Sequence to fold (439 residues):
Amino acid sequence: INAEYMGYILNQMEKSTIGAEGGKILTLNTLEKKNWLIHILFLRQEYHECLKMIDDMQKRSSEKSEFLLFMKGLILRIQGKIQESLEAFKQCYILNPNNVSCQKEVGKALYLLGKHNSAIEVFEAALQLNPTDWQIHYGKALSYFSIRNNEEAIKCARKALEFHKHELVFDLLAKVYSTMEDFANAIDAYQEELKITPENPELLISIGLLFIRMDDNDTAFNYLGTALGFDPKNMRAILAIGSITQDKGDHDAAMLKYRIAAVHNPNSAQLWNNIGLGFFGKQKFVAAIACLKRALYLDPLEWIISFNLGLVYLSTAQYASAYLHFSASLHLKPDFANTYMYLGITLNKMNNCQNACAAFNKSLELEKDHAAYFNYAIVMYNEEFIDEAKKLFLEGEKLFQELDADAKNSEPELLEQRMALGKALGIPLSQCQLEILSN
Fold:
């Protein structure tokens, strides 16, 4: 229960209990005699008995009690009856329109019902009575975030932090920045929260995952390792560390991590997906397909699993199966450029050049990527469209030259294809750079 509101109720009870009037002691009215018992039942989480007592007391009296309505609203919300909870808080508000705590609860109920604009209006009205309440600003920030008004959400969250540095506010701020793909500010928010709860493994994992998205795997590994120190069985940390290890090519070490995780959570689709990729990296295709199929069984709506299955089938020349899984992945996530690229490769292998070109064009429309240009150029060369192949190759080479040294050397197979294609097109790599500059 909100401490401020409980102070208010206790103050009202004190006024009605003790006072001198003609030398007589005033007593509690009928609706206030068992407030203490209702409070105890609520703290014990005996919600059924508590609600039954509130209803009995309300039936015995024609008067309405602010305390009873407030407690009833809290219990109904805990039980998931949000609309009924809102009605109780509204009645409480009618009894005392200056009760800020009640207004906050009305705003929370409206937020839970998905009426975010109405919730914002209620929170703004509450701020007129108490502009320094951090919970009201936090409620506004949540509502703005739900309607995707990220700028206002950030503004309200930072206003809440001026009055109280609470971990919930930092967490919300980081989520808003992550949605905007402003990972640096998201990390800053999480690190401020880390000062409040330095041993929170979930928080350390969130920071580590953001560093992964910023391609800083070494820093991410440190945070994830610290998280595992506090919670050695944490699935998210194990999967993330295993993923980093796999990216470095150390599949055996990653598989060792996954073996630990499988003992505690054998039905995790993400775990079996990563195990499948580990076998794929070790060129054990049958085991990879078996693991990925199990992952797909556990979570059939996860697009990345279908995508990975498509990759394995493409590598084993099972083009029809690859096509089916790439298509399924696109139905679930139609804005991922690489899926279109691999679908184009698959369709070309199935001698469907027209649809392969359409897939490559869609991939390049979503993202200009050197690998897509090179693969598209190979298809054009094989179909004897030499001029178009040359044009695509030069576009891909232009993007390739913009990469740093590590990125260039990360895909040795692509480097070989690039050199072979340049040679087939009669464009030496030195001449490639000259033509790019002239263009």
Observations:
- The beta strands are 20-21, 24-25.
- Residues 377 and 391 are 8 Å apart (CA to CA).
- Confidence is low (pLDDT under 50) at residues 14-28, 431-437.
- The two ends are 69 Å apart (CA to CA).
